[in-house]
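Standup notes, protein team

Yesterday: finished cleaning the Massilia agrisoli set.
Today: Sigma-54 dependent transcriptional regulator structure.
Blockers: none.

Input for Sigma-54 dependent transcriptional regulator:
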Amino acid sequence: MSSPRILVVDDEADLRELLEITLLKMGLDVDSAETLGEARAFLAKAEYALVLTDMRLPDGLGIELVREVTALYKGTPIAVITAYGSAENAVVALKAGAFDYVTKPVALDQLRIMVQSALRLSTAQGGQAEPEAGTPSRLIGNSPAMQSLRAQIGRLARSMAPISITGESGSGKELAAREIHAQSSRASKPFIAVNCGAIPEALMEAEFFGYRKGAFTGAAEDRDGFFQAANGGTLMLDEVADLPLAMQVKLLRAIQERRVRKIGATAEEPVDVRLISATHQDLAKCVETGKFRQDLFYRLNVIELSLPPLRERLDDLGILAGAVLDRLAGPGQAKLGPQVLETLAAYSFPGNVRELENVLERALAFANDGVIEVGDLSLKSARLAEPSAASMPAQAPVIDVPAPAAPVASPMSAAAPAGPDTLPSNLPEYLEQVERDIILRALAQTQFNRTQAAQLLGISFRQLRYQMQKLDIHAPED
């Protein structure tokens, strides 16, 4: 059985020789070309597990070869070699369909990692190890919007290009990221999802990059960070817009160099991670306002995948509701009564699929014999014109904090000051009570819809859920 064959296209003889030697030591067969013309002749005669091309060639640009291979040799991954600091060239190549890239001077360990990823992809496309073959999609629905989304995901799974997933809260951004990972050549490797908005700023570097024993007080042993944990697989940065600027700089370096340094370590270590970022915010606007670095934005936003809100795919309501009920009550154990589907279709679902799940879970608790009626939905206050997550104000409205001197039957009243000039006797308890009162008022204002309450308070749904758990706040039906 012959070894996989690689085509190297570069006009620098020394670099071409270095690449050939490295690939031959990996047990691969290598063909070399100096020009686009020679490369095209090789491609016409043989099949390749990977094409590796420089961006500047004597008779044209490597991007031309990227487009040709992507269009004519769909089963052949192509990667590019870019000059150091030419991030825009790498982005252009990835958008044109390149599998991955390496920068000059070529780091051989990064080259080996990239080649191994390409070989896994070639094997999967050859039908020998299709990841998650036959597994149903996590993204349920037969609407045109969902069919288009699944087709896009199938194409994106072939690449190593960073992906930015956008969409309203509750639209399924993490499910889409998991689907990309499951269909990729990295399916057997870890998928690590990180909520950037839930990590204290002081702990971010340790959480992302890890630390050495004794690096700081409390570091009793070596610990890997998210990048090491996801090595070989996919790292999802959820709510990436919440990253502070100082961490954005460090993240940008890790992406560019594909190396991370643990806190307390003297050397960097290579990592092989595909990055997927997600946010419900408009990252381009965050760049304009100075909240998000432009260079990091271009690194993460190589390919954008936009998820449709539920109101734009109401044809999927029936199949979604059925899947949710089967998961909550067991297959065939619960169903929707007359007019329920029509009532749901008349609701705007600002919280999208996550809100649908919450509505059905609450309704199922009130249903008789597993049959949900219209009255069980508790949607009397719902309006068709209710604002969506995308149309919510960017800044949370000002909420008046209740006067601390007059809490009604509050268990923290002993900590509250007696007058405006009096300091609280227990600051942590006093602040917890103030936070509790604000969250309860937001929940009451939204009929305990946690998605809308989080939007009202200007925080993420996960942050609100965490605060509710910490403060022991439960919905009436909990």
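Follow-up from PR in the comments: The longest strand covers residues 274-279.
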